[in-house]
């Protein structure tokens, strides 16, 4: 993917939450148990964490994604979710601005630099940033849905989520508006629909009747 995809996703998110009011901030997101304040806080915290991943990588150093690991990540989301709407939006804008500035500092020779996020590289890290911004923008439940995910994003996400296919299943997705996609070995399970609907199901954001139960996110 290209940095422009990340910048496009960030701009869309910022525009979406601009002027967020208190009632909307406290309202339910698409994610069970999370308000929109939870989602916004998570995106802001993720953005800061990834800014740090980039900054350290460019110095030839490694750093944990979240100090204190998953428990600290979850506690920080809960602690920040109930802030006033204006504070949520300002924090998100500041975090996204810093994140995009960090990615702008990555040169052509830097993409192979290692990071601790998934024990991968900056090239994989910008893909992770893209996924977080696009998916969680839909999770806010403020208008954009997975039906609007770009085709090249869907293709990327399907390939990233291949480990979700259960053992013993040969999963065959036949989108009405795209090429056939296959993964796994075993019993054939064929699902049909639009590319976005099938991708949303594989990402845990939609239901498809008769679909197999998926494994956790990789």
Number of domains: 2
Radius of gyration, taken over Cα atoms and rounded to an integer in Å: 18 Å
Range of helix content: 40-55%
Name the average pLDDT. Answer: 97
Structural class: mainly alpha
CATH class of the largest domain: Mainly Alpha
Strand order of the largest sheet: 4-3-5
What general form does the structure show?
globular
Distance between the termini: 20 Å
Tally of DSSP β-strands = 5
In the CATH scheme, what's the topology name of the largest domain?
Four Helix Bundle (Hemerythrin (Met), subunit A)
- Quote the beta fraction: 5-15%
Instruction: Label the CATH architecture of the largest domain.
Output: Up-down Bundle
H/E series = HHHHHEEHHEEEH
* Helical segment count: 8
Unreliable spans:
none
Main sheet specs: 3 strands, mixed
CATH superfamily label of the largest domain: dinb family like domain
Pfam family, one: MDMPI_N
Keywords: Isomerase, Pyruvate
Organism: Kribbella albertanoniae
GO molecular function, one term: isomerase activity
Structure description:
This protein folds into 2 domains: 3-144, dinb family like domain (Four Helix Bundle (Hemerythrin (Met), subunit A), Up-down Bundle); 153-202, no CATH class. It is 51% helix and 10% strand. It is built from 8 helices and 5 strands. It has helices at residues 3-17, 22-26, 36-58, 69-80, 85-104, 122-139, 151-160, 195-202; strands at residues 114-115, 120-121, 169-175, 181-183, 187-193. The protein has a 3-stranded mixed β-sheet with strand order 4-3-5. The chain has a two-stranded antiparallel sheet with strand order 1-2. Strand 3 and strand 4 (181-183) form a beta hairpin. It is globular and about 50 Å long.
């Amino acid at each position: 993917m290209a940095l422009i995809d990340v910048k496009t996703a960030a701009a869309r998110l910022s525009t979406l939450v601009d002027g967020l009011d208190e009632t909307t901030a406290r309202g339910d997101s698409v994610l069970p148990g999370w308000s929109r304040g939870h989602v916004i806080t998570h995106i802001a915290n993720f953005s800061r964490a990834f800014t740090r991943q980039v900054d350290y990588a460019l110095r030839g150093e490694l750093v944990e994604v979240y100090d204190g690991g998953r428990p600290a990540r979850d506690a920080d989301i809960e602690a920040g979710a109930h802030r006033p709407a204006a504070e949520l939006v300002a924090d998100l804008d500041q975090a996204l601005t810093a994140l995009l500035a960090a990615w702008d500092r990555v040169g052509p020779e830097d993409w192979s630099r290692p990071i601790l996020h998934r024990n991968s590289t900056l090239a994989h890290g910008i893909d992770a940033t893209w996924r977080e911004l696009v998916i969680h923008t839909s999770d806010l439940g403020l208008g954009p849905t997975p039906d609007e995910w770009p085709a090249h994003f869907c293709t990327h996400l399907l390939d990233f989520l291949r480990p979700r296919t259960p053992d013993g299943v040969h999963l065959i997705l036949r989108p009405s508006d795209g090429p056939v996609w296959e993964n796994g070995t075993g019993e054939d399970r064929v699902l049909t629909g639009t590319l976005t609907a099938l991708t949303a199901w594989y990402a845990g954001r939609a239901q498809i009747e008769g679909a197999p139960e998926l494994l956790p996110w990789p």
